[in-house]
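Give me the fold.
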Amino acid sequence: MLPLAGVHYVMNALAAVALGRHYRIALDEIVESLKDLRQAPMRGQVVRFKEGFTLIDDSYNSNPRALVQMIQTVGRLRASGRRILVAGEMRELGPESKRFHFECGEAAAQSGLELVVAVGGDAR
């Protein structure tokens, strides 16, 4: 299993496997390397707390496509408690900013999340 939050990372991993096989790297070596992957800070980073809850930090200036993918990922998670999204404003979207934020809000509403907190600018 990939140690990353998001189904969308599977395609990247498959491309890495294909490239590794093309260069005749053993499949078990590729699999071991994939286990060592770590998410960049604030880009879907999974943070587990001793109190028993998990945070997926995807707070670094997201974009509409990435945010919708993360919303879908969190919506599919099996959780013993509530699934809460805290999303900030996505910047540099130009005149379509409000529409993009609205569409992300719609995706969140359809995902099964229990609570959505929008912070700042057009995110509200």
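The chain has two domains: 1-38, 39-123.
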